[in-house]
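Reply to dn_fold:

You asked what the input looked like. This is it:
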Amino acid sequence: MPDAFEMPIWAIFGISAVAAYFLGCFNGAVIVSKYILRDDVRTHGSGNAGLTNFYRTFGGPLTAVVILTDVLKAVLAVLLSRWLMFHGFTIFLSAASTTALYDAVAKYWAGLFCLLGHMFPVMFKFKGGKGILSGGTIAIMIDWRVALVVWGGFLILAFLTRYVSLGSCWAGLSFPFVSWAVYRNWLILLLAIACGGLILWQHRGNIRRLLNGTESKFHLHKKKE
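and this is what came back:
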């Protein structure tokens, strides 16, 4: 491929990590609430800068902007990582048998740092969201089988129980298992454990409330104050 170029593998992974992290920092709920509505979502409800808390607090059509922001940043992070891998690491040009594996590694790597940026955004004092929407987007981009397990369990549990957090915990817990089932690769498993572990860690408060029976259920319509 004539447009390929040589880069040290550490540089490829480093650039990908930094770019994915800063893309992840563009938290849709914070940006819309703080700079458009002039009312930081983190001062309301659960204090979380995520889609659920934004919808519960503000509702309205700007929820779609939050969704679009968190989806697009995950898509861009993964695509950039894949581009760097395929154009900067010449093993792809001669070893077709490893292409799928390194493609998957690029996705998981970018996904991990995008989640870190979303959860701990440097420009918002490291106080971000829980990563479900961006993480779900990353799962879709990784592999349809991974997405089916993660999203399928999430939607079933959230629909049947109305606990979005329960579906989110399923997503974080199931992610390493389905990743191993699909790829059977230790590096991918470690990256998947890191991603899933971050999701569960961010939901530790929800887990406590679920166990105590005090977790709030999700309602399609924003509650009137």
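DSSP finds eleven helices and no strands in the chain.
Hope that clears it up.
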